[in-house]
Amino acid sequence: MQPLYETAMELTGKLKAARLQAATLSKNLTETEYRLKVKKAGIERALIKQVKNEKLLGNTLEDRTRIFTLALDADTDYQDLLRRHTDLTMELEQAKIEASFMRDRLTVTLAAMKAGEATE
User: Fold this and answer.
1) At how many degrees (to 10) do helices 2-51 and 61-74 cross?
2) I need a surface site. Which of 13, 52, 56, 110 has the fewest CB within 10 A?
3) Which long-range contacts (CB under 8 A, 24 or more apart) does 101-110 make?
């Protein structure tokens, strides 16, 4: 029984660490999303200032959206933030999977402990 108890305690600690990592990554992802929005707004604002009037960027909303998209694509700082966002999204998903795996292992360990108690 003792080895299963030690395993359960170890898994509990690992599960806590995985959940804390997921929470930290989630916070970092939220911050990066905000920075992306601010950067996007700044790029769009600078482009509008440059031509003096948003309507001069294109006749339709679709035309202006295309121009803004190309401006975002050309901005290296925005692209760096976008890559950071993508990386954080992937890391967060991996952390969630790890936490889920640890939770499942802990559930199996606890079930084995209960089964051991029932046979004693």
Assistant:
1) 120
2) 52
3) 102/11, 102/14, 102/15, 102/18, 103/15, 105/11, 106/8, 106/11, 106/12, 106/15, 109/4, 109/7, 109/8, 109/11, 110/8
pLDDT digits (tens, 9 = 90+) for 84-104: 999 999 999 999 999 999 999
Number of helices (H), then strands (E), in the chain: 3, 0
Cα–Cα distance, 83 to 90 (Å, whole number)? 11
Task: Identify residue 21 by its one-letter amino acid code.
Answer: Q
